[in-house]
């Protein structure tokens, strides 16, 4: 065989191989490559979307944390103010109660002083009567001299 015929037959076989490859082998490979490229692109898009969502979620979390910190600080300040108000109110009530107790003690002391004076007046009157008995050497009738004794008590 001649080299030209061999070269010609090889060219025809090569053309048939190229045609067969392009018709039956290449489309599934191209489809698989396209599908893989699409999956990679979708994965990258999903990763970018997830990254942006993560960044958005982090911002929302930071905002909520700042909001809760502010709210906590506000509540603590309110609680502290309320505690101070309660303390002041308790101090005021305690002072008021103390003043009432002191006033009641003064009233009671005044009453006891008045009672003690009355008792002393009666004792002085009795002593005066006994002294008068001793001076007069006779018994003085307290019933008869009640008005005199009453006047004596008031003078004392």
Automatic annotation (TrEMBL):
InterPro entries in UniProt: ATP_synth_B-like_membr_sf, ATP_synth_b/b'su_bac/chlpt, ATP_synth_F0_bsu_bac, ATP_synthase_B_chain
Where does the chain cross the membrane?
7-26
Select a single GO molecular function from the record's annotations and give it: proton-transporting ATP synthase activity, rotational mechanism
What Gene3D superfamilies would the database entry show? 6.10.250.1580
Q: What is its main location?
A: membrane
Is the Coiled coil keyword given for this protein?
yes
Gene Ontology cellular component terms for the protein in this record: endomembrane system; plasma membrane; proton-transporting ATP synthase complex
| Sections of the chain in a coiled coil | 44-96
Which compartments is it annotated to reside in? Answer: Cell membrane; Endomembrane system
Top-level taxon: Bacteria
User: What is the membrane topology listed in the Swiss-Prot or TrEMBL record?
Assistant: Single-pass membrane protein
| Coiled coil recorded as keyword | yes
Its keywords, alphabetically, are:
ATP synthesis, Cell membrane, CF(0), Coiled coil, Hydrogen ion transport, Ion transport, Membrane, Transmembrane, Transmembrane helix, Transport
The subunit field of the Swiss-Prot or TrEMBL record says: F-type ATPases have 2 components, F(1) - the catalytic core - and F(0) - the membrane proton channel. F(1) has five subunits: alpha(3), beta(3), gamma(1), delta(1), epsilon(1). F(0) has four main subunits: a(1), b(2) and c(10-14). The alpha and beta chains form an alternating ring which encloses part of the gamma chain. F(1) is attached to F(0) by a central stalk formed by the gamma and epsilon chains, while a peripheral stalk is formed by the delta and b chains.
Q: Relate the protein's function as given in its record.
A: F(1)F(0) ATP synthase produces ATP from ADP in the presence of a proton or sodium gradient. F-type ATPases consist of two structural domains, F(1) containing the extramembraneous catalytic core and F(0) containing the membrane proton channel, linked together by a central stalk and a peripheral stalk. During catalysis, ATP synthesis in the catalytic domain of F(1) is coupled via a rotary mechanism of the central stalk subunits to proton translocation. Component of the F(0) channel, it forms part of the peripheral stalk, linking F(1) to F(0). The b'-subunit is a diverged and duplicated form of b found in plants and photosynthetic bacteria.
Protein name in the entry:
ATP synthase subunit b
Q: Which organism is it from?
A: Rhodoferax sediminis
Q: Per UniProt, what is the name of the gene that codes for the protein in this document?
A: atpF
């Amino acid at each position: 065989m001649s080299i030209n015929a061999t070269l010609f037959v090889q060219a025809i076989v090569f053309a048939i191989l190229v045609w067969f490859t392009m018709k039956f082998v290449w489309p599934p490979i191209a489809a698989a490559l396209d599908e893989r490229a699409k999956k990679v692109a979708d994965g990258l898009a999903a990763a970018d979307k997830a990254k942006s969502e993560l960044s958005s979620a982090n911002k929302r979390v930071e905002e909520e944390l700042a909001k809760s910190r502010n709210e906590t600080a506000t509540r603590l300040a309110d609680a502290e103010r309320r505690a101070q108000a309660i303390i002041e109110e308790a101090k005021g009530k305690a002072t008021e109660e103390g003043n009432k107790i002191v006033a009641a003690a003064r009233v009671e002391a005044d009453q006891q002083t008045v009672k003690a004076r009355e008792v002393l007046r009666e004792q002085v009157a009795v002593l005066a009567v006994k002294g008068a008995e001793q001076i007069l050497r006779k018994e003085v009738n307290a019933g008869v001299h009640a008005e005199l004794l009453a006047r004596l008590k008031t003078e004392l």
